[in-house]
Amino acid sequence: MMFKNGEAKGDLNGFLDAGSHMNGELSFEDTFRVDGRLTGKVVSSGDLIVGERGEVDGEVEVGRVYVSGTLKGSVKATARIEITSGGRLLGDITAPTLVIEEGGFYEGRCTMERAGAEAAKSAAPVAGVVTPMTAKRDG
User: Which residues 6+ apart lie within 8 Å of 48 measured at CB?
Assistant: First the structure.
């Protein structure tokens, strides 16, 4: 499986198709794709893909997460969080890398941590809307 950044991903372990609903705790090894609705907790060192029609609501702890649909809740990724142009992520996140494509939406608190490093953390609220600053000139 190949993503926009050119990185090859592991085998697809599972798929929750559109029209399917799941409540509970999910764990998997390599890659899992959600195009339906998943409510609960997701734990894996692999990749979670939230497809364009996918909805995830809950606590997510994975290696990487790619959001093209909607993800609501806390997200901790050990490698990367990527929000594509149609994706929406609402919740607090922790990851060493955050990528938001133009048209993607994120609202919540972001903590950036280096992979495998301890502690140089910074937390700041981030929203998908940028307001212009006004400059004042003397003279």
Answer: 31, 32, 34, 42, 56, 60, 62, 64, 65, 66
